[in-house]
Amino acid sequence: MTDDFDKLSGLTPPKASNEARARALAAAMQAFDTAEENSTATQGSVRPVRQSSIFNRIWSPIMNRKLLAGSALATLLVIPAAAFLTLELTRNTTLPGDIGTEIAVKEEPKQKAVPQPTPSSTATAADETLAAAKKQETSGLAAPEPAATDAKGQAPTSEPEIAKLLARTREQKAVEVQSAPAAEAEADAMANQMMSDSVAPLSAAPGAQNRMTFLPAPVIAPEMQTAPQENRERFGKADSNPVKSVATDPVSTFSVDVDTASYAFVRRSLMEGQMPERDAVRVEEMVNYFPYDWPRPATAAEPFKATVTVTPTPWNGGTRLMHVAIKGYDVVPAEAPKANLVFLIDVSGSMDEPDKLPLLKAAFRLLVEKLKPEDTVSIVTYAGNAGTVLEPTAVKDKAKILAAIDTLQPGGSTAGAEGIDAAYRLAEKAFVKGGVNRVMLATDGDFNVGPASDDELKQMIEAKRKSGIFLSVLGFGRGNYNDALMQTIAQNGNGTAAYIDTLAEAQKTLVEEAGSSLFPIAKDVKLQVEFNPAAIAEYRLIGYETRALKREDFNNDKVDAGDIGSGHSVTAIYEVTPKGSPAVLNDDLRYKTAEKPAADATTKTGELAFLKIRYKKPDGDRSELITTPVTEANAVPSLAEAPNDVRFSVAVASFGQKLSGVTALSDYSYDAVIDLAAASKGADPFGYRGEFVNLVRLAKGLSGGGSSAN
Length: 710
Known about the structure:
It is a single chain. By secondary structure, this protein is α+β, with helices and mostly antiparallel strands. It has helices at residues 2-10, 18-37, 54-64, 72-92, 125-137, 159-178, 182-194, 261-271, 283-287, 357-370, 398-406, 416-429, 454-464, 483-491, 503-512, 514-518, 644-659, 670-679, 688-702; strands at 200-202, 213-215, 244-245, 251-255, 304-313, 316-328, 339-346, 376-383, 385-394, 436-443, 470-476, 495-500, 520-531, 536-542, 562-565, 569-578, 607-616, 624-631. The strands form four sheets. Strands 9-8-7-10-11-12 form a six-stranded mixed beta sheet, sandwiched between helices. The protein has a five-stranded antiparallel beta sheet with strand order 3-14-16-6-5. Strands 4, 13, 15, 17 and 18 form a five-stranded antiparallel beta sheet that branches. The longest helix has 21 residues, at 72-92. The chain is globular and about 130 Å long.
């Protein structure tokens, strides 16, 4: 028996004729169609799991997670991608065997190594497996395929006829696949989407000769692609104040700053889950954001009162803090002068966002409700060009003012300079002598028409301030917020700047603090501190980098400075190093001149520094001077013994320095800031201080919780 099998195995089978090959091909195709499309066949599998195609395995979990449920964009992406995928599957799927070759396919030898996936345009067993699985999933949706015969019902006998038959068969398959239901197309599209960004392989099914096929990544039309939004926010750059030696530079001069924009912007950044840009942090604006109960002057004859407290420094045991607090006279509402306000509102296309124009309109509605009946309001808008929406109108006609606000709609480019010019003209038209005349600019700062450079606008604003009209700048929105430009406008136009990120902030700025926001009690307010070299070796002013003045500017009444409104408080903090402290950073000068004792040295014994404040009345041109000596009588032994307001402001100053990257606080942790602020929160009727503690916690989490200032 064995010999007979050996003889048979050595025989060469006769070569098949064209007619035999055609009959075999027709029989194979008919058998395949019968096996795959027999509706009476028993459904199910001996495998313990439900049969499913690769498309369902990809599609089902995605749908279960509802990634694309209800998305109109998904529909636009899925349908074109599915059509493309179907075409590729149809084009790449061919019958087993090549034309002109024998039907029999030899089994490839098993490979020990895992084959590397390579793209292929020829038919593979994996292609057949995918096509069969896909066909099974849609069984019953298409009519059974006819046997492989020509138009006359005869089996082809020649190779050209066989080729024509195969081509016609492929065309029929393409039409049937492309007419599959939408659900099938969406499944194919999702399979393709899961493999996007690069050509992704599909593992060959069992028995697919250890080969793999690839699906192309979907092609998305350029108009359907969404580019990331460009961040056009601009902030002025200013390095932190350095440590200065009293021996060579004993005098510090700066302009007061009552702006609060930086704190509100920092808060919004942290609430949105990101650390603020360092240039967006101005420590003095963060400190001055909070109301403090500093001692205030008794009468309007003394517009403000200064209080100095000296404490140990919490982040540096070798230094002390000299805390200077100024409180302005609080005008009684009944005594408030008549107000002439011009709302200069940016209605350009960039304001068409929920946190811009809609919030702006709600904020101004709050302000109108706060004004007195005899006050007047005008409205000027700018977008492309400036226009007057409302001529000066008494607040007693409140409905007319509110209706004008409600009609504002965004659109156009931003001709900010033209709008400013129109607003000042309208303010001059309704000027109230002895009253409050103020332009209130509300914008995201995106001035792109007219004088766009900061220097040009600075010159324009400087010229306008001579008219006696004050300026308030209210910033809105993110993305193209131009803080640098708004600071330039406010600082050079007898103005103040605030950032409105919520309606609650609008309530705080325009309603609760309306007196300080609208009614000035002093302008061009400057501070100058001279340190006593016999007591202080070094000093560093915390914040006020953009408000620095030259020493000679202090007595020059032509130099503009900050303004203080009714009830405003201003806080400035110096870190000072006592003479002989191990924390001194600068060496003594080798060639310094011998110090000569002052003639009145006996009157200066015990002085640490001498504080001078120069200011003008709102309608005055000549400055007046207030002086205060700083002695050990102003000192407290420990920070814990200082008033709550002093300690809380120090906590805010330390937080601002950490956010801005001051290296002196690199070892002072966020936890230390939290502890100091929480212990000194005191009375907090509006919750501002409690909110601050939470912001420090957010910064701690976003920064990794370390003690680094970064």
